[in-house]
Design brief:
- 83% of the residues lie in helices and 0% in strands.
- It is mostly helical.
Amino acid sequence: MTATVIQLAAYRAALRPAAARACRWSDALESVTASNLRIAFAWQRIVLRAWWGV
């Protein structure tokens, strides 16, 4: 039985777009999560100040 010979350069070139897409999605998810956390903490401060009259 013979093994298939893989051209490593072609294999890496084929994976490059998938890796770039994964990095873009990760960056977008991180940005959305950070924005949502900022909004949540700001909303919490507004509500607490309104309740306590500060």
